[in-house]
Design brief:
alpha+beta, Ubiquitin-like (UB roll), globular, four-stranded mixed sheet
Length: 64
């Protein structure tokens, strides 16, 4: 399997899921996370301060 479904968190709370290639870079993970259903509402009007990406496992967007 070349793709994996990972959880997308906003400030430590799971808000959605994204499908990424196993070898996705941090920038690809960020783009997929921001495009995931339900994430835009939690990030709207706020700045992504930090991105924590564990390949094949999780993307956490820290917003402020």
């Amino acid at each position: 399997m070349d793709t994996v479904e990972i959880a997308v968190q906003v400030n430590g709370r799971v808000r959605g899921r994204a499908v990424l290639p196993r070898t996705a870079s941090a920038e690809e993970a960020r783009a997929a996370a921001l495009a995931a259903t339900g994430i835009a509402a939690h990030v709207a009007g706020r700045t992504v301060v930090k991105l924590v990406y564990r390949p094949g496992e999780i993307v956490n967007l820290v917003v402020g």
